[in-house]
Design brief:
Oligomer: heterodimer
Helix content of chain B: 55-70%
Radius of gyration of chain B: 26 Å
Number of strands of chain A: 0
Helix content of chain A: over 70%
Largest sheet of chain B: 6 strands, parallel
Number of helices of chain A: 4
Strand content of chain B: 5-15%
Distance between the termini of chain B: 78 Å
Largest interface: A-B, 83 and 110 residues
Strand order of the largest sheet of chain B: 3-2-1-4-5-6
């Protein structure tokens, strides 16, 4: 039953993703990509447990490296996206 | 038990914030707020996960977050807008590698007993995480190398490439089966990781620089799908949902890029295998060169100007000079629009960001379909560092490799200025009949220099 429940989430999230992203205008496609870099850093959440739990040395090392890489994505991704979006201005507003 | 419910509730809130953040990204005026909302969602998800009772030590977590965070922040602050394609590509790679390592850690963290009793579903999802994460990582590193000029941007093609790819796919299935049925044997695990990394390497190295927008978008999608697979493996719902949002985003962008080049995804990915197309027709005619001084007189009299930027504008760092010329033209009573082709530059939306950096208002940037119907109304079209996206061969020459690709029909305007270093063929190696049209004038030289001399003419 657990598997079916997870697959349901997959199905619904995939449709939701397509509907949301389709509405993003072409002018924002680069920030969209760097923003999704940041969001895909969500792996951090899984990596935190692998890094901090009572595990073998190998698992802790793997988890910690994963935490490092995912943190680069999260922090770097959000900051650079913010920097870019701050540049987009409307006419007469600048 | 109550703590677990609390954590999952917080994940629901985070997912809601990610979704709301993406929704705000549908307009430039709310996009920045959307990014912030999404970041708050991420913050909640991370903080609440730290409460998990499995976590007993925070030393290594702190080390990873501090090292990664500092590097990420430094990179975000330092990167130039022209280098965004490299940065996104590198970050795709980090995302893929993080998922790969998480998948690996999931197996290495299991006791001998768990390795026997855990369901096959877990190992299938771990297998997918390892493969997709590996392909994303090595593919992105190659794409990063090509975009940053550390590797040759030419497609590396050799005989046996097709056989090599088929070999990889067969090995994935065979070794994958062995891994799922016998997860206690770490040999299979290592071979799977090696196959994933090797496949990403060969699949990307055989794709040329001009097709990189498609490759980056696709790898972006993979990095999300790898996170989803990792989420299925460790049973974490927030990873599944969020990974799919990213996966969907990458796939949509990939599709837009492919449509804009009138090619299928398979055609782009397997371009290394196709034979070069023979040039059917020879273009005859004469190239008419114009000096910046003469170009100035035409621009001074113009009422409506359209600028078509391409990758060459990024290379020449000419966006600020373009903006200066734009202001002078507007002061002279001329309207200035920009037409941006979906595959201009080296990643989706690359030109928009460069122009935004130079303070060009986003409501003056138009897509191809918006400007083509009113092309006759423009007195002058200035093509800066773009070639294939304005190539009329896509409409006129059946033998051309880009035949059928939707292009900005610059040749229908009253006058076309092409700013170009020399009169050679463009990135795709295709001759451009636009250069030979009666209403086309070439202004040869560095794009930035040319625009600067036009600006000087306005000053006099």
């Amino acid at each position: 039953m657990e598997i079916i429940y997870l697959l349901f989430i997959v199905l619904l999230a995939a449709f939701l993703g397509f509907e949301l992203i389709r509405k993003v205008p072409a002018t924002l496609h680069t920030p969209l990509m760097s923003g999704s870099n940041a969001i895909s850093g969500i792996t951090l959440v899984g990596a935190l447990i692998a890094s901090g739990a009572d595990n073998s040395v190998l698992t802790t090392v793997l988890g910690t490296v994963a935490v490092t890489l995912a943190s680069i994505n999260v922090i770097g991704g959000y900051l650079v996206t913010d920097r870019m979006l701050g540049m987009f201005k409307k006419k007469d507003n600048s | 038990m109550t703590l677990e419910i609390l954590i999952n509730l917080a994940y629901v809130v985070s997912a809601g914030l990610f979704i709301f953040g993406l929704k705000l990204l549908s307009h430039p005026s709310t996009a920045r707020k959307g990014n912030l909302v999404s970041a708050v969602g991420m913050f909640i998800a991370v903080i609440i996960t730290l409460l998990d009772q499995q976590i007993i030590s925070y030393h290594f977590i702190a080390l990873g977050v501090i090292v990664g965070g500092l590097y990420g922040a430094w990179k975000a602050k330092r990167v130039q807008m022209t280098q965004m394609p490299e940065m996104v590509s590198l970050f795709n790679g980090f995302g893929g590698a993080a998922s790969l390592l998480l998948g690996w850690a999931t197996v290495s963290g299991m006791s001998q007993q768990m390795l026997v009793t855990a369901s096959g579903f877990v190992f299938i999802t771990v297998l997918l995480t390892l493969l997709i994460g590996g392909v994303t990582f090595s593919g992105s590193v190659i794409a990063w190398g090509k975009l940053s000029g550390k590797l040759s941007s030419k497609a590396l093609i050799f005989t046996g490439l097709r056989e090599l790819s088929i070999l990889h796919l067969v090995a994935m299935v065979l070794v994958g089966y062995m891994f799922v049925t016998d997860p206690a044997n770490t040999l299979w695990l290592y071979i799977i990781i090696a196959i994933g990394l090797s496949f990403g390497l060969w699949a990307t190295i055989s794709i040329g620089g001009a097709d990189m927008p498609v490759v980056i978008a696709l790898l972006n999608s993979y990095s999300g799908i790898a996170a989803t697979a990792a989420g299925l493996a460790v049973g974490n719902t927030i990873l599944i949902v969020t990974g799919l949002l990213v996966g969907a985003s990458g796939l949509i962008l990939t599709n837009i890029m492919c449509k804009a080049m009138n090619r299928s995804l398979m055609n782009v990915l397997l371009s290394g295998f196709s034979k070069p197309i023979e040039q059917g027709e020879v273009i005859t005619g004469e190239i008419k060169v114009l000096s910046p001084q003469d170009a100035f007189y035409v621009l001074e009299a113009a009422q409506a100007v359209l600028v078509v930027p391409g990758y060459g504008m990024a290379v020449a760092q000419a966006q600020h000079a373009v903006r200066e010329l734009h202001t002078l033209l507007e002061e002279n009573g001329c309207s200035v629009d920009y037409a941006i082709h979906a595959v201009a530059g080296r990643m989706p939306g690359h030109m928009n960001v460069l122009l935004a950096e130079a303070d060009v208002p986003y409501d003056q940037l138009y897509e191809m379909d918006d400007v083509n119907p009113r092309m006759e109304n423009y007195d002058v079209v200035i093509v800066i560092g773009a070639n294939d996206v304005v190539n009329p061969a896509a409409k006129e020459m059946k033998g051309s490799p880009i035949y059928g690709m939707p292009v900005i029909e610059a040749y229908r305007a009253k006058t076309v200025f092409v700013l170009k270093r020399s009169a050679n063929a463009g990135f795709a190696g295709v001759d451009n009949p636009l250069f030979f049209k009666d209403n086309t004038r070439m202004i040869l030289g560095d794009a930035k220099e040319t625009i600067n001399s036009l600006i000087r003419e306005f000053g006099d």
